[in-house]
What does this fold into?
Amino acid sequence: MMKRLVVSAFAALLLGGCADPSGIESRATPDDPARLALDATAANAPFAPWPTDDWWTSLGDPELDRLIAEGLAGSPSLRVADARLRRAVAEAGLADAALYPSIDAAARSTVQRYTANDVVYTAKTRSADRLALDGRYTLDLWGGRDAAYRAALGEVRANEVEAQAARLDLAAAIATAYAGFADRAAQLAVSRELLTQKQEIADLTRQLRSAGLTTDVEAEQAAAAIAAAEADIARDEEAVAKSRQRIAALLGAGPDRGLAIPEPKFVVGGTLRLPAAIPAELIGRRPDIVALRWRIEAATAATKAAKAAFYPNVDIAAFVGLQSVGVDRLFKPGSAIAGVGPAITLPVFDAGRLRSGLARADAERDLAVETYNARIIDAVAEVAGEITAWRANQTVRERETIAVKRLERAYHLALLRYRAGLSNYLTVLSAEGNLIAERRNDAVARTRATEIAIALAHALGGGFTSASVGFEE
It folds into this structure.
């Protein structure tokens, strides 16, 4: 009777003094993307399917296709993402192993001198020997270990998706760098065309000078203009070389790889085409957003695991083997041992460790949720920004085309008048300067269309779906 009272009192003491998780709760809630209206911004755009996995092929440049394939096959950034995924898989393996019993084989032999007051081995030196299998299994009564496994599995899936996001980012980076290369090459072409014009004007000026229709001033100005054009070519050639080197670096290759990259030949359509229901579907199409959703799942499971740590832990320990004093007796009859029994532990006083752990887990979940909410807003804003940029650039391209044609006519008229001695050299310079400036702007606008198409495909997820990584949400 007394023994039962003692056990009951001890149990009541444990239960009364255990850590309390009350008052610690997550605060954040995942946002609903349906509230982020994009209808007016995307109005009147013809419908088009979502981008495909090989979205860059729509740009119509086989060289770009080859470059992206090469980059996806050998970039260090993708190997980093792969290493992170393998680490997450290993962590999940550890969490999964914790759900099952463990069995260890152990052999132990300790030589010791027994005390002179020992009943059996008075003042003798003997070995204490043990050869056994020791097993242990923790009962997951509160689901904490299962929650820890699901948290680790969520991290695996998040890393799987982030590996796809790294592929998308790399493909977009290569395509954008290639578009930048196209812009630098176009500017170089304009500079070379300008040099040809400067040389023609210089020849004409010398002829007019010989005829006494101009002075040495115009001749020196024409010669100086050639030198200035050659300087522009040198600067543009530097920019082209750096663009090639940038692409080579993205491919995971050395600078010399860039020397073999030919000038781009993009084909970009003139009509903006968009998928339907962008905000609602974007959360499943953008790998960075899908990864954050899995991190929320992982953080939610980690919170449950942290709560389970507040409750009693029950371990079942068992052993079977041989034990003796003196190794010569270890394998004799009567040395067999076996046992099984539970061990119950309950946190009583931990100086706030468990509450702090739960508070940290809840804060980590809230951080994941709010990061997800912010990313949704940023994603919709990125799409809207590229739609706005496309439409503005279409207007720019139309007006630049008109401006270039008119300035070409003005330049040719000025050149004819200068050839006939009806206008001075400054008139030709002015017309030429305006024409070259507009040609440069026109080249920028044409390249800009490609850059926007790339950025829009990237903002829409670049063809990613959950099936891309072999699981459904």
Notes: The chain has two domains: 21-99+143-305+355-469, 100-139+312-345. The first strand starts at residue 102 and ends at 113. The longest helix spans residues 144-210. Residues 86 and 293 are 20 Å apart (CA to CA).
